[in-house]
UniProtKB/TrEMBL annotation:
Function: Converts heme B (protoheme IX) to heme O by substitution of the vinyl group on carbon 2 of heme B porphyrin ring with a hydroxyethyl farnesyl side group.
CDD domains named in the record: PT_UbiA_Cox10
Lipid bilayer topology: Multi-pass membrane protein
Major location (coarse): membrane
UniProt enzyme class: transferase
Keyword entries, A-Z: Cell membrane, Heme biosynthesis, Membrane, Transferase, Transmembrane, Transmembrane helix
Any one biological process term the GO annotation gives: heme O biosynthetic process
Name of the featured protein: Protoheme IX farnesyltransferase
Localization of this protein: Cell membrane
Organism: Roseicella aquatilis
Membrane-crossing residue ranges in chain numbering: 30-47, 53-75, 96-116, 122-139, 151-173, 179-203, 224-241, 287-304
Reaction(s) this enzyme catalyzes, per UniProt: heme b + (2E,6E)-farnesyl diphosphate + H2O = Fe(II)-heme o + diphosphate
Other known facts: Carbon 2 of the heme B porphyrin ring is defined according to the Fischer nomenclature.
Length: 310
């Protein structure tokens, strides 16, 4: 008798699977945070941008980030093939040719900058081009394989979106978007080093000098806590400088307290001292997952504050 409860095999059409691979090259999970922070930069900037132009600006930010991700995957295809976390990516898995991926990334990068300049202004387009170039040339090609401070300096690439959003509205860069830049900049090390604590074996295998590989897990845990302590006062600057109100300040304090709790748990965890790898749902994994929610909720709080309080 056949099992009527058994699920039928699902066959993914070849063309749909190929589309998925091209989307994967853009690192869509990274783009979601990039787009969110860019939108908030648009929202809190003084002035007004027509809805169609605002949509165009957000699309350009997304395309620019995706282009940088695609070029990053093209350049890192050799080490991606040897890392468990990345071996199934389209290029090392042989589903997309490296040359096609590079052309794809470069084309999207050029298109995003040109459209941004034509739709909004060339200040925003210049900052967008700078962010793409910084991620590709400074982080991916220069820092990543050379220094344990790669993610500290290279993290600047991911901090540009609110500056781009602000510039798209105002045509200028003032202190306020630089504060938002600083928040993301100082959020990046505890976020990424939490990941590197439980993925350090991959980085060690391919010779990428992430902090746990070069300085050990103990020092990395200490740095996660240190940068979290630097980050939390920075998150209050929007209120202290007057471009956010009490709604944002309350959210920043609550979210920051939880982030600090996770950082302290990472600092106190000693599992990595008893062996060479972290197993189970350890504090580093919890901190990494929370850090993603933290940044998104923090910027959502800023947007809500602006909508409620003006």
């Amino acid at each position: 008798m056949s099992d009527l409860t058994a699920a039928p095999d699902v066959v993914v059409p070849q063309d749909l699977s190929e589309v998925r691979d091209w989307v994967t090259l853009l690192k869509p999970r990274v783009i979601s945070l990039v787009v969110l922070t860019g939108i908030v930069g648009l929202m809190v900037a003084p002035g007004h941008l027509a809805p169609a132009l605002a949509v165009a600006a957000v699309l350009c930010i997304a395309l620019g980030a995706g282009a940088a991700g695609a070029i990053n995957m093209w350049y890192d295809r050799d080490i991606d093939a040897r890392m468990k976390r990345t071996a199934a990516r389209p290029i090392p898995a042989g589903r997309i040719e490296p040359g096609a991926a590079l052309a794809y990334g470069v084309s999207l990068a050029c298109a995003s900058v040109i459209i941004m300049g034509l739709a909004t202004n060339w200040t925003a387009a210049t900052v967008l081009a700078l962010s793409i170039g910084f991620y590709v040339f400074v982080y991916t090609m220069w820092l990543k394989r050379r220094t344990s401070q790669n993610i500290v300096i290279g993290g600047a690439a991911g901090a540009f979106p609110p500056v781009i959003g602000w510039a798209a509205v105002t045509g200028s860069i003032t202190l306020e978007p630089l504060v938002l830049f600083a928040i993301i900049f100082f959020w990046t090390p505890p976020h990424f080093w939490a990941l590197s604590l439980f993925a350090h074996a991959d980085y060690e295998r391919v010779g990428v000098p992430m902090l746990p590989v070069t300085h050990g897990a103990k020092e990395t845990r200490k740095q996660v806590l240190f940068y979290t302590l630097l980050l939390l006062p920075l998150t209050l600057l929007p209120t202290l400088l007057g471009f956010a109100g009490w709604v944002y300040a309350a959210a920043a304090l609550l979210l920051g307290a939880e982030f600090l709790r996770h950082a302290v748990a990472v600092f106190r965890d000693r599992q990595d001292e008893r062996g060479h790898s972290l197993t189970g749902d350890v504090p580093a994994k919890k901190a990494f997952r929370y850090s993603l929610s933290y940044l998104g909720l923090l910027f959502i709080a800023l947007a809500v504050d602006r909508m409620l309080l003006g």
